[in-house]
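Colleagues,

For the teaching module next term, I've prepared a clean inverse folding example: a structure given as tokens, and then the sequence designed for it. I'd like students to try predicting residues themselves before seeing the answer, so please don't circulate the second half yet.
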């Protein structure tokens, strides 16, 4: 009997000891410091900077920069001070001082060839044929006519409209036509964003977002006559489209970004497909062969323990930057890659901006990082092969003369455009009047991943760690209780309650 008990105790001891060894081993699995921008220290190379854009009187103006034929640019700017209640009606808040905006035609070196409009009493926006016009977006048509879309107010009647203004290649206004949104049944929400995009057949399309009914796409032919219009749902009203080109024309079909949804529309105005993605889209660009690449941010839950012997865990998050090329036929991914980085959200703001491509088809995704209340930016470039294979990362540092809060750093206020030519990436910042240059000729790529493990596997290990800790605590507690019970029984057995000491004395 004693032998059996000893064998049982030995078996239990071995099991308990084995659990302790497993617990020690699993608790040695690393836990990473969330106070760093990445889990590795990347040596940052300073970027070059050039002051190229003209001063626009406002550091926070809205701009739209469109690259046109010949490597030149159309730059639309406004301080967005004009506010009117409804299209086709009297503007209650009209004043000449509210008509502020200009359209500039820039050479390939960003020198200004001509400017229409302005920001002072001499040039209150673009004044033409009795209206004051504020450009929000412009493009160059195949017949070398410039078409701009924006807001206008009749200087005599103060009637407010959304207007198309046509100019010649030298910036002289030719004609205008109002877009009868009220006649189409649309209601103004007071916050409207515009985009105009030419097509190879001489026509163009306009996108007007965040009306009460959604987003409207209007297609015009080469005679500037409307062919069709379609309304797409846009219920977010959060300004996602403020800082991205959100419409492309590829092989006659239109691809539109609204919030986190991409919609394909045929050249006759019918809907082809619509797909919503499970991350926040922050970049909407084209590959060299005119496929769409989307870039974005997401947060993946990551289980965390405050100490190695915790009995519980809680969710923290891994910031993940997504990049992928989609099929134009249905919006599914041709390839997709996730770049994961640890972060402390109270101190860092990180945003995947745009993806550009070199001549070989390699993809470079620019991630912009700002530290709390700092003068400095950090750019992290992520490189992928044409098939989406992760090739490495490299970091670059940038500084600004002005100081701004991290909480004020939002893409719609600090909009950028990104281009690539040969081995040089250009970061265009009209808001800061600058272009930043990143030379990739001698860049060394760190091929290691910032988070060198699978998040689901890590979560499973943390889950196992917590439950092993709980099991060991339960077994130890049960063992202590068992020992106490055994000791109590031994004491009870040592004292014989059946013997009467008085009878023995007699």
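(Answer key — instructors only)
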């Amino acid at each position: 009997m004693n032998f059996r008990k000893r064998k049982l105790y030995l078996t239990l001891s071995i099991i308990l000891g084995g659990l302790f060894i497993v617990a020690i081993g699993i608790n040695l699995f690393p836990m990473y410091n969330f106070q760093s921008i990445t889990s590795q220290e990347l040596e940052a190379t300073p970027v070059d900077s050039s002051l190229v854009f003209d001063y626009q009187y406002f550091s926070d103006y809205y701009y739209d920069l469109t690259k046109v034929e010949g490597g030149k640019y159309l730059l639309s700017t406004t301080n967005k001070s004009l506010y009117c209640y409804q299209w086709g009606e009297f503007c209650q808040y009209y004043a000449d001082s509210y008509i502020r905006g200009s359209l500039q035609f820039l050479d390939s070196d960003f020198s200004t060839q001509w400017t229409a409009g302005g920001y002072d009493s001499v040039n209150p926006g673009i004044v033409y044929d009795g209206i004051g016009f504020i450009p929000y977006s412009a493009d160059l048509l195949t017949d070398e006519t410039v078409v701009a879309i924006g807001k206008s107010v009749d200087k005599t009647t103060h009637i407010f409209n959304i207007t198309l203004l046509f100019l010649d290649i030298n910036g002289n206004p030719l004609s205008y036509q109002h877009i009868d949104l009220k006649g189409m049944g649309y209601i103004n929400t007071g916050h409207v964003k515009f985009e105009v995009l030419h097509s190879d057949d001489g026509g163009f399309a306009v996108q007007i977002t965040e009306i009460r009914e959604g987003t409207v796409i209007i297609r015009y032919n080469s005679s500037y006559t409307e062919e069709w219009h379609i309304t797409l749902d846009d219920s977010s009203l959060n300004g996602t489209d403020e800082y991205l080109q959100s419409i492309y024309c590829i092989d006659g079909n239109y691809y539109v970004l609204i919030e986190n949804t991409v919609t394909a529309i045929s050249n006759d105005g019918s809907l082809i497909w619509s797909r919503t993605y499970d991350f926040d889209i922050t970049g909407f660009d084209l590959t060299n062969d005119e496929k769409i690449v989307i870039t974005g941010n997401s947060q993946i839950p990551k289980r965390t323990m405050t100490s190695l012997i915790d009995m519980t865990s809680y969710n923290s998050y891994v910031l993940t930057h997504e990049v992928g090329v989609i099929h134009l036929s249905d919006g599914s991914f041709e390839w997709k890659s996730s770049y994961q980085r640890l972060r402390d959200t109270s101190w860092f703001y990180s945003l995947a901006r745009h993806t550009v491509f070199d001549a070989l088809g390699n993809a470079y995704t620019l991630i912009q990082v700002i530290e709390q209340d700092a003068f400095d930016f950090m750019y992290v470039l992520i490189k992928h092969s044409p098939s989406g294979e992760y090739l490495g990362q490299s970091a670059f540092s940038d500084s600004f003369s002005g100081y701004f809060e991290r909480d004020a750093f939002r893409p719609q206020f600090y909009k950028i455009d990104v281009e690539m030519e040969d081995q040089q990436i250009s970061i265009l910042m009209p808001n800061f009047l600058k272009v930043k240059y990143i030379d990739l000729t001698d860049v060394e790529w760190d091929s290691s991943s910032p988070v060198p493990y699978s998040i689901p596997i890590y979560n499973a290990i943390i889950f196992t760690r917590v439950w092993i800790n709980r099991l060991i605590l339960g077994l130890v507690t049960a063992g202590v209780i068992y020992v106490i019970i055994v000791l109590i029984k031994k004491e009870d057995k040592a004292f014989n309650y059946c013997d009467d000491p008085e009878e023995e004395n007699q």
